[in-house]
Amino acid sequence: MKKIVIPLLEWYQENKRDLPWRMEKDPYYVWISEVMLQQTRIETVIPYFKRFIGEFSTVHDLAKVDDDKLLKYWEGLGYYNRARNLKKAAIKIVSQYNGEFPQTFEDICSLPGIGEYTASAIASICFSLKEVTIDGNVLRVYERLTNSYDNIDEMAIRKKVRLELMKIIPSNPGDFNQALMELGEVICLPLGIPRCDICPLNNFCKAREKHTFLNIPVRSPKKIKKNQKMTVLLLICNGKVAIHKRDDRGVLKNLWEFPNISGMYQEAEILQYLVDCSFDIDSITSSVSYNHIFTHLKWQMSSYIIHVKDEISDYVWVDMDALLHTYALPSAFHPFVKEVEKELKICNG
User: Fold this and answer.
1) Which helix (H) or strand (E) holds 218?
2) In the chain, which end has fewer C-beta atoms inside a 10 angstrom radius, N or C?
3) Residues with catalytic roles
4) Cβ–Cβ contacts within 10 Å for residue 113, how many?
5) pLDDT tens-digit map of 203-226
6) Assign residue 283 a region: left if phi > 0, alpha if psi is -120 to 50, beta otherwise?
7) Where are the extended beta strands (E) located within 193-252?
């Protein structure tokens, strides 16, 4: 494994992508980018990162932002606890570290929402600490290089890989970590045929030699997703649509959403439900259906556009501008936003 270090670093210097958080080794930028990149592709993250940093350019800005505004700037990235933890960590950095990002691995790990992976990335890239960053890309590269059939979903295996890479980490650990991750993203691909012909480590790769790369890495079988059916109510009155905030527990907690009820219902059943809720109804029309996939959950969603005569105080009634620019609706509800927008345009002539 020691032989991979020099060709890997040389390849990275010649081929590394021009990413906005690489312009400077600013721990604030690296931290925000690494959190955004969890469960999200680089191409998706770049515009979010630029917009986020444009609004919250310092840790002080992030520490004092209103929660609704913070979540609006995170809207569409998913896993909203990441954003909430960013603010919690920013508050701690301001209050306990005088606004300066902590510079030891242990102190970085102590920040809310930061685990070993994110801490090692910040520590190695920004402060040149010899810490190995382990993500799916690094695990895949290592397992193929060594032709290992260990299950990378097991924590013991992740620790083993980390210890093995710690033995070869060079004096520029940030470049080493980024090089391994970059190699996994653009060369040693997770799906389809890896680009072995242009890989700088192809002469050292045992999986390439044995033609076993499509079988590696080994992972645990995916869990069957639980199906949950719901009916979304797009309630419209006087050029506004009804929204309300979800509970403070469970999936998408404390985010705004369109009113909805569990289960799939026919028009007559929805009408009766709305009458029981004291609505005076002008019209009801079946609208779009949509499936949204979470990590361990699948929402099967149908919807109705319902024009009502009076606004009910149980909900917040907002116009299209506020819906688009003020309130954070998770991406699960975005297809219905488009339907509301079309309906309000018709209403407003």
Assistant:
1) none
2) C
3) 34
4) 17
5) 999 999 999 999 999 999 888 888
6) beta
7) 226-237, 240-245
